[in-house]
Amino acid sequence: xxxxxxxxxxxxxxxxxxxxxxxxxxxxxxxxxxxxxxxxxxxxxxxxxxxxxxxxxxxxxxxxxxxxxxxxxxxxxxxxxxxxxxxxxxxxxxxxxxxxxxxxxxxxxxxxxxxxxxxxxxxxxxxxxxxxxxxxxxxxxxxxxxxxxxxxxxxxxxxxxxxxxxxxxxxxxxxxxxxxxxxxxxxxxxxxxxxxxxxxxxxxxxxxxxxxxxxxxxxxxxxxxxxxxxxxxxxxxxx
Length: 239
Description:
Elements: E1 8-12, H1 17-26, E2 32-37, E3 48-52, H2 58-71, E4 77-80, H3 91-112, E5 121-128, H4 139-159, E6 164-171, H5 180-184, H6 186-194, H7 205-215, E7 226-229
Parallel strand pairs: 1-2, 1-4, 2-3, 4-5, 5-6, 6-7
Helix pairs in contact: 1-7, 2-3, 3-4
């Protein structure tokens, strides 16, 4: 049985989408969840704490670290969920993807990882199957998530001596704000469903299992890995 009771879990990007869902569901396992989001996260639970700040802002990150040191002292699990996807070959767009999905994630992790050194912990980077493929007209997103996968391996290697594990979740197609345009387009939705072995889009609750696993002692011997959660999209052959 998965047991994460009393663990302190930090999640970035909790005001909506996957981050909001994970925060709300993880609380059911009697852990403490701290959400970092630009907008207020509307979760009312005595074990949920919301810090409003911009993950891209260095000062906000420092304030968040100070808040954690004062209020909670340690962090058991860090879920780097905040991210964007902007299409195009414009340098400004490329930089926005890289800054949000990679640079800010590295910066936040570098600050918070010190709160894991004493007791160990688990870092979960929310990545994408786009990191493995050249999805059309989305070089910034593809590259930023590929960089995140590489960062996962580096962190796993360099912080193993502190009993800190780091793994990536490579998500396939889930109905979210980021994928809404594709989902609402019948042709695009059908193409994605057809290319998925399970012949459907994923549900948020199907992300929860892997997150619980990687947050618990049951994954203590797993680090530096890319766990693909895509309904079989990446193994689809010619059929």
